[in-house]
Amino acid sequence: MSETRVVVEVMLKPEILDPQGRAVKGAFARLGFEGVADIRQGKRFELTIEGELTADRMAALETLAGTLLCNPVIEDYRIVSVEGAA
Amino acid sequence: MSETRVVVEVMLKPEILDPQGRAVKGAFARLGFEGVADIRQGKRFELTIEGELTADRMAALETLAGTLLCNPVIEDYRIVSVEGAA
Q: ipTM score of the complex?
């Protein structure tokens, strides 16, 4: 049965302070890696979906990505990869 | 000054149970999106680095990605995107 693999990336909006990313940036400097201008931390979801992603299912996925997978007040999502697999 | 943008993706190793991904998969089903075979949740880091990423700095970045950004016992990392910007 065919499967479709989808990746959804969720990042804080650029104007929202990212304390996790800030902490990682501080750790880079303390560990001797200089010259880091910025680090932002986000989430990614790898979905394996049975069958094809029809237009209707893609629309439903967009809705879920924008409500369940991210908090639209402070986060943006991107559906970055949609590939069918045998 | 030139900047280099790097993305590091961190995912649980395939053999490690992913309770977050499992919870999201359950939510998809409850919300009416059927046919999800699997969902895995991971992290992504967007790094903006001043100047060029020389071979030495790339090696240092690999070390940090494999120790600071991920827990190598249960997670894999991938440096997926390295692009210079003006």
A: 0.90
